[in-house]
């Protein structure tokens, strides 16, 4: 059966290199770069959303005539898988949702102050000043402090490769994706019977 691997934010499809090698003998493995990342590159779209990324996945599956795949998504890729399952619960044979952001507690101001203190503009200025990789490193450090432990990966080499990959993402694309993560409300998949 086909397996579609969806990478995390500020990464690209090469993040799945080892998994592709491992599963290639048993499955038709498909990877792609989500909008604004890797070979997909920057887009003219002013604002991204998980719904837009789900539309892209839907188009990919239809264009490639892929039926009942197993979807696997990591981080933002996990949000895309959840969104796809909510929209098309019967299109998927199975799903792996790895570490999707449920919220950004470490960065979320009190609800009544949220419109005034959203970190999106600060992150935009930060990435413009110090670059995507340094901004992502700062995000990783903040999330580790907020969660009381290692975040992103327990493997230091994997974590460093992910931070380095973030450096390939433009300021505008970095900011558009941060807004998606910060403002996203995870899709309800309680009705989904697909094996997770």
Poorly predicted regions are 103-107
For the termini, the CA-CA separation is 16 Å
Task: Compute the number of helices.
Answer: 8
Question: Structural class, from helix and strand content?
Answer: alpha/beta
Major sheet details:
4 strands, parallel
- Quaternary form: single chain
Characterization of this structure:
This protein has a four-stranded parallel sheet, covered by helices on one side. Helix 3 (76-87) links the parallel strand 3 (70-74) and strand 4 (94-98). The chain has eight helices and four strands, in the order βαβαβαβααααα. The chain is 45% helix and 10% strand. The longest helix is centred in the C-terminal third of the chain and has 16 residues, at 132-147. 31% of the residues are buried. It is globular and about 45 Å long.
Summarize the structure.
The protein is α/β, with parallel strands linked by helices.
Describe how the helices and strands are arranged.
Blueprint: E1 2-6, H1 17-23, E2 28-32, H2 50-63, E3 70-74, H3 76-87, E4 94-98, H4 114-117, H5 120-130, H6 132-147, H7 156-166, H8 171-183
Helix pairs in contact: 2-3, 5-6, 5-8, 6-7
């Amino acid at each position: 059966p086909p397996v579609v691997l969806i990478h995390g934010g500020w990464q690209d499809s090469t993040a799945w290199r080892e998994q592709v090698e491992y599963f290639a003998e048993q499955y038709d493995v498909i990877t792609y770069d989500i909008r604004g990342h890797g070979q997909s590159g920057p887009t003219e779209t002013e604002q991204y959303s998980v719904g837009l990324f789900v539309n892209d996945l839907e188009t990919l599956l239809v264009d490639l005539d892929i039926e009942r795949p197993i979807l696997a998504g990591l981080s933002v890729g996990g949000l895309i898988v959840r969104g796809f399952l909510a929209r098309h619960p019967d299109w998927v044979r199975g799903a792996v949702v790895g570490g999707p952001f449920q919220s950004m507690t470490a960065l979320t101001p009190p609800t009544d102050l949220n419109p005034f203190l959203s970190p999106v503009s600060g992150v935009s200025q930060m990435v413009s000043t110090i670059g995507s990789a340094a901004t992502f490193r700062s995000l990783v450090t903040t999330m580790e402090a907020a969660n009381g432990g290692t975040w992103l990966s327990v493997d230091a080499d994997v974590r460093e490769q992910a931070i380095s990959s973030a450096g390939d993402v433009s300021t505008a694309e970095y900011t558009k994706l941060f807004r998606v993560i910060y403002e996203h409300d995870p899709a309800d998949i309680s009705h989904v019977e697909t094996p997770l």
